[in-house]
Amino acid sequence: MKKPTIIFVLVLLFSLSVVWPLQAQTPAPAKPSGPLAVKAGKVLDVRTGQVATNVYILVEQGKITSLGPTAPAGVPVLDLSNKTILPGLIDCHVHLLLNWNDQSSASFLRMSSPQAALWGWRNLQVYLEKGFTTLRDAGETDALYGQFALRDSVKSNLIQGPRLVCAGSFVSVTGGHGDLDSLAPDFALKKQVNIADTVDEVAIVVRRDLKYGTDWIKLMATGGVADPLSDFNVQELSQEQMAKAVEIAHRARRKVMAHAEGTEGIKAAVRAGVDSIEHGTMLDEEGAVLMAKQGTWLVPTLYTFQHGVEAGLTYNQDPIMLEKGKAILKYQQPAFALALKHRLKIAFGDDDDPAFAPKEFSALVRGGMTPLEALQTATVNGAELLGLSAEIGTIEAGKTADLIAVEGDPLKDITVMENVVFVMKQGAIIKQPKKD
Ligand SMILES: [Zn+2]
To answer: In angstroms, rounded to a whole number, what is the distance separating the alpha carbons of residues 214 and 255?
Structure first.
């Protein structure tokens, strides 16, 4: 362990030991209560769109044990009879280890790994408060893998947060979308652990991710928007490099996601056998046909591109990032329309400050989805992409008790998803509606 890391751990342990006895409520994760019946005014079946009224959802030991018209005698009832209940939401494209208020290219150079982990903890709380009970971290720049520490700490109940499925490093070519070093050559950093310019170097980065516990591999198939170096039109990793990553990951029973904006890079990633295309902003007809044929998922992250242009330089972006954001936006809607036309499998991803994550629902509907389809991306579809369909994604007996509530009818007005008033994760109540 590096010296600064040891100091950080000691300081953290010390502060926890001081704070915990005084404020048992704040840092300690909420625990599942005894048996509880949630009285739902309406329950949405996200598979079919059918709405059942006045349903008692019985929750015991973190699981949904039954749904019915009455509650068993003696079981306390939580009355949400004027609310609509949905499954806890799943966001398949987040980046936790960031201060989203500073999106400048220098932000990575100023952020220590411990500081990034603390931002991660804070971002987890925002996601949970917005109703997201499961997240897939779509890769980070932290060579020390703070995202894995967060994932494992949520799992062991050390901290409160959505359950996490994590990618490791951004596997990137030199000068590509995942190359943090935007300094002049006179000041160049030593080669970062995520940089891979050959097939063999990809194998090394992927194996390092696997060694330290990654769930997914994240490839930078093309350039992107939020960096000062790369061109989003251009394919970066070769198809051979990506195929090597897929071969090693699949053999290790892990999946592969590819950041892919430009048309050729999308197709190369799909041909290489990746499991999901992230963004897919310049998808063409041939690419859509290929994805449909291979069953490749799309995580379109629509709103973050729109928000980036609306926000201008509010969040310290380098001006070149804003220019790229404006240039790519015109491709977004035609590509998304192709994805819908070819009935691609689509999962929800926000790729933005968690405060804005719920805005992706409206963006999906503006892009052509029905409200139900938009809700499916963040529930049944997300669960399927993550291989967690047996546990999460719907409200059924036997599933984990991840429940949220909204006011109003999300099938009529998708913007109600921006105001989640109740959150339960694994039977523990995280957020309660304000008393009327
Ligand atoms: Zn991303």
So the answer is: 10
Cα of 349 from ligand 1 centre, angstroms: 9
Read off the pLDDT band of 22 (50, 70, 90): very low
* pLDDT, tens digit (0-9, with 9 covering 90-100), for 65-81: 999 999 999 999 999 99
Model pTM above 0.90: yes
CA of 226 to the centre of ligand 1 (A): 9
Q: How far is the CA of 94 from the centre of ligand 1 (A)?
A: 6
Q: How far is the CA of 216 from the centre of ligand 1 (A)?
A: 13
CA distance 355 to 367: 21
Structure tokens at 419: 């105001």
Q: In the chain, where are the structural domains located?
A: 1-28, 36-87+395-431, 89-357
How many angstroms separate the alpha carbon of residue 320 from the centre of ligand 1? 18
12: pLDDT strictly greater than 60: no
CATH topology of domain 36-87+395-431: Urease, subunit C; domain 1 (2.30.40)
3-state SS string for 149-206 = HHHHHHHCCCCCCCEEEEEEEEEECCCCCCCCCCCCHHHCCCCCCCECCCHHHHHHHH
Query: Residue 84 Cα, ligand 1 centroid: separation in angstroms?
Result: 31
CA 95 to centroid of ligand 1, rounded, Å: 6
Q: 370 alpha carbon to ligand 1 midpoint, in Å?
A: 25
What is the reported pLDDT for 24? 44
Give the model confidence (pLDDT) of 133-145 as tens digits: 999 999 999 999 9
- Tell whether domain 89-357 is in CATH 3.40.50.11270: no
User: What mean pLDDT value characterizes the chain?
Assistant: 94
Identify residue 26 by its one-letter amino acid code. T
